[in-house]
Amino acid sequence: MTGAESGADHPVEAGLNARQRVKQRLGDAFGLTDYGVNRVTLAPGVWSSIPHFHSREDEFIQVLEGTLTLVSGSETRQLGPGDCAGFPAGLDRPHHLENRSDAPAVYLEIGSRRPDVDECDYAGEDLRAVQLPDGRRGYARRNGSSPG
Amino acid sequence: MTGAESGADHPVEAGLNARQRVKQRLGDAFGLTDYGVNRVTLAPGVWSSIPHFHSREDEFIQVLEGTLTLVSGSETRQLGPGDCAGFPAGLDRPHHLENRSDAPAVYLEIGSRRPDVDECDYAGEDLRAVQLPDGRRGYARRNGSSPG
Lengths: 148, 148
Prior knowledge:
2 copies of one chain form a homodimer. Helix content of chain A is about 5%, strand content about 40%. The first copy, chain A, is mainly beta. In chain A, strand 12 (about 125-130) and strand 13 (about 135-140) form a beta hairpin. Chains A and B meet through helix 1, strand 3, strand 5, strand 8 and strand 10 of A and helix 1, strand 3, strand 5, strand 8 and strand 10 of B.
């Protein structure tokens, strides 16, 4: 029903793990604007993102197929179909999902779309996703410089 | 993880079909505030709601278990696990879900939470969900009177 797009572009070495994620933007396909809904497929070995948390956006995930490992700090938890997790805005505990199984895994992710600017902090890296001076979204080091 | 609550209270006869729906408020349980996420269980014969549309709120549903019938005007469509549907705010085509199967069905529903006031129009009935003069949510007839 809608084109799939591949890959995250985090400009750090750990970002390689998320390059193969595949997202279908379902909410956009239905014309929804208040929040984003994506169907995400992770092949074995692929990550959802590098560990991160959001300043302003609530995040919710629902596993649809396969087995995912939720990594939050030093804790891990296996999630299967029917399991879900929520990450309120401002919760400064980084998290991400990894497919450590040998089969594809699929989940639904829901995220806020707010008029104020969300910043995403990739806690294990010197990296944040921010609004750049020209208004576009991009990446910055903690000292404000470009990660190149 | 969170208590379940039963039943819709639409004060019309057709509302009886939705009295047995069971909702778990997952988003609230995780402390999310930007949007609502509910896990809804419909036993055989039970409806999600009476036919309706929202003025300001986007709605998205994802089937998790069982088979549901999406009813939108004179059209019906069967939805199973993996299927989803979206209803943008202001789309004045009424819809609801019915469980016409002989087994329970489970779906995830996501709805906006906006600071401006949403009105829900139950298109087949002389009924709207509105903000009452005292600030609470309630029902009104189209002429503004109380449905009693």
